[in-house]
Amino acid sequence: GFLNDVFDQATGLRVVIHEPNRYPNVEHFGMNVESGKMTELAYTPTLWNRSNTPVNPCILSGESFKDLGREFWYTQRECTNKHIQDQVMARCNCIIGLPGFPRPKTPSIALPYCASFTRAYNKTFDDFLNQLNCYVGVLESLTEANCLPRCILTEYETKPSVTYWGATDWQVYWSGKFVNDIEDLSSLIQDRDERAKPLPELRERFGAVKSRLMRYLTQENLTTVGDADGQVEDMVESKNFAYVVLKRKSENLVLKEEKQVLTLNALMSQIGGLCSLTIGLTCAFVVEIVEFFYIYTTRAASKQPASAAGGPADCST
């Protein structure tokens, strides 16, 4: 019973490179990043251009969907999973929480996760079993969803490179503090520009961010961590952090395009070649057949008036 816990006890990140505004398929294309190491991800984009044929149809764009309030563009996998999610929500009154299943509504007590039976969602173990059986019944009676693959999509061939990251605890601490303060300062500047008249609370927030930045810039010894009153703060451990570098190998783009191999001209050429090799049919033979039927019909038509003129006469008294 403890095997699942043993396999899930991993420290680090799972990273995936995906198209902008597309739902990330972390389960199938994600890569594990070890904490305490520097991982460089070098990728090469590959553009797929499929042909829309009657046998294998595809679409350029489809209906977008939402997952916990965020909108994503169409993908075939998420379209199929959304079809399953809608039927489970309608019939089982719960939401599938597995990766890759869009959640159009936020889980609540009225509409909880199917795999949850905690007090937070006011569910018991019997409710969990009933919803599990309902979920299995939906999968057994599931109707096929009209979800076609995309004609144009981009994949990223990624090659990871891992090395030792020798950052110390105080470096990680101050890096996080500095980055957070810069992000707060950028958001405050944006809020100030959007308002015609700055509010007093913005000035207070500006002052707080300024004091934190000045503390970082004027600190004599950054190896010790202390707050504004001189009290020592808890220092984070650098081994619990991961350094990820995302880099494109080159500006080149790999294009993989499907083309129609058997065109109409190629089809006629192959039919003519096979007929000439197997039963001796050629274009000249077709012309001779047409000529034969033409001569036959013209001669038959010319004999009919001659037969009528040389027939027996009608005698009358």
TrEMBL record:
The keyword Ion transport applies. Keywords: Ion channel, Ion transport, Membrane, Sodium, Sodium channel, Sodium transport, Transmembrane, Transmembrane helix, Transport. It is a multi-pass membrane protein. One of its GO terms (cellular component) is plasma membrane. One of its GO terms (molecular function) is ligand-gated sodium channel activity. The chain crosses the membrane at residues 271-296. Pfam families: ASC. It is found in: Membrane. Belongs to the amiloride-sensitive sodium channel (TC 1.A.6) family. This is Amiloride-sensitive sodium channel. It comes from Macrostomum lignano.
